[in-house]
Amino acid sequence: MRFPENFIWGAATSAYQIEGAHLSDGKGPSIWDAFCEIPGKVAKNENGNIACDHYNKFREDVKLMKELGIKAYRFSISWPRIFANGRKNSINEKGIQFYSDLIDCLLEHDIIPWVTLYHWDLPLALQFEEDGWLGDNISDLFAEYAELCFERFGDRVKNWITINEAWVIAILGYGQGVFAPGRISNSEPYLAGHNILLAHGKAVKVYREKFQSSQKGVIGITNNCDWREPKSDKPEDIEAAERALEFFLAWFADPIYKGDYPEVMKARLGDRLPSIDAETRNLLLGSSDFFGLNHYTTMFATDATGKNVEADVHGNGGLNEDQEVELSIDPDWKLTSMKWAVVPWGCRNLLQWIKKRYNNPPIYITENGCAYDDKVENGEVDDQHRVHFFKTYLEACQEAIESGVDLRGYFAWSLFDNFEWASGYEKRFGMVHVDFETQKRTPKASAKYYSSIIDNNSI
Ligand code: GAL
Questions:
Q1: In angstroms, rounded to a whole number, what is the distance separating the alpha carbons of residues 252 and 246?
Q2: Could you confirm whether 367 is annotated as catalytic?
Q3: Best CATH choice for the domain 8-456 from the list 3.20.20.80, 3.30.1300.10, 3.40.50.1970, 1.25.40.10
Q4: With a cut of 50, which residues of the chain have pLDDT below it?
Q5: 3-class secondary-structure state, position 114
Q6: Which of 75, 96, 379, 422 has the highest CB neighbour number within 10 Å of its CB?
Q7: What is the distance in A from the centroid of ligand 1 to the CA of 86?
Q8: Residue 287 pairs with which residues in a beta bridge?
């Protein structure tokens, strides 16, 4: 089967994970620059100071993308490279020039830019001064930063993503403390999540009121979700899987598609979940032109009412005590080096769940991929596990499309091996291998495989 005409084939990265040049040309520090300085937070105490040195190598990187036949490139803008201290008064023209040059270079190579405004590198000053995503002003500050981006890049950028993975920011950054800013709490994630939604809504409002009709672009948000399969057909396990999906994806998608948080979250969280008043409802309802989805893995869900369940970072469990869901995997499932199970049908089921719950929105998979322990041998990387991953997940996407899901594009994560957050450089997600000593790029077998899929618009 061929994919639909005009299906968008892309690859994705994010600023802190690839750019390096962490304090060059007037860039201010971000919370990730600071977090990496705390001993023990990142594997081997690594950091993104140099990463793939993409800030200096972007021209050759774009050329490589062109050679691979990539049609669309999803990257993120680093807020503190644009406003060094997070606010308008700290505008950094050299940082703006970098993104402007990157965008021009992509367009010269016929590659469509898809730009994420926030992929986790909050200006450090705003963490100190505003309490990061907990602060009352943070959503307005984000909207001001977004406005500057629309103003300077919107003539050429037609695809905007406000926020990458609100769930990760809230749960890993404010709940489990394993990502910047490293806070541990069972209430802060819900406040941070609320402010992230407000930030998204306010940025979209600015875009729609001032730019969208003249610039003719689209804007949306990208959320992440694993699939949750009921462990048995007992009603309580079916309900547990549903509850887990609502605490994961509906937390952020319901306010946008239905105007309120899921009932199950309101009932279980009480005061810890901020409420959505009429004004906020208006701001959020209908505020995404497409459904951006990042998807990586699947787990079984078992009802654990009354039991004490441990939070599991690797399984993306969330704050399990709020959900009372126990997560597990099938021992026969193959694992990636992140210990995430490879379960392509989970991707299909999740796409169908989104179709049903949100009335068949246009969906873009803005990230999907896997980490393996790839080695260069005789100048080549034969990553057959990743080839298999892409093949089977894309087959699952086709099944979803055949069943009526309006899937319009797919972005492989990631173009390059890069700084994998708390896991450092050891976990390699790239289709292109990067030797971090020499900065040499070597396309893996999966890159060539992906090229051929793009070429044929079919697997
Ligand atoms: C996503 C994230 C990416 C990348 C990927 C693999 O959650 O947006 O930045 O790290 O996971 O873990």
A1: 9
A2: yes
A3: 3.20.20.80
A4: 313-315
A5: strand
A6: 75
A7: 23
A8: none
